Amino acid sequence: MLNIRINVNVDLKKVAVVLTTFFLFWGSLLTPANASDFKAEFDFVPEKSVTVHLQYETITVTRSQAKAALNSPYAQYYDVQTLAFLTEYSKGVSMAEWSCLNNIWTNESHFNPKALNKGSKAFGVAQFLPSTWGNYKVQKTSVAALQIKYGLQYIQSRYGDPCNAWKFWKAHQWY
To answer: What is the mean pLDDT of residues 104-127?
Structure first.
């Protein structure tokens, strides 16, 4: 007669971990409620892109791409109209408001940061009068980004938005 003895050592903690992992993994795959919760957590809606036709180029961009473009080292090389569009669009301004702003500044200066009205001495993209520059406590500058910044502040404080400023411009040929 042959007597065989087998000793089996079972680490119950390891077995518990393996079984728990197994059931959690397969349980989450087979349970539709968990699967839909997972999808809802990680599902995202892609940003809407817009296409705008500017004087020198056509741009298709999302709001986050506009913000990134303004923060890139290449922003200094953008033409003034592109810079103004990216500035406005990155702030969440509607395309209708962009159209109004585009109309005003095209009529005022054609987006030329060095435009000078010899009669009134209005200067720059937004055609600020010398007194308007003084109201912002800045020196008159030909830096387009600053002119855009102060021009947008002026429109916001005086008219509320570019479309109200455009309505005023159409009635008076100035704003």
So the answer is: 97
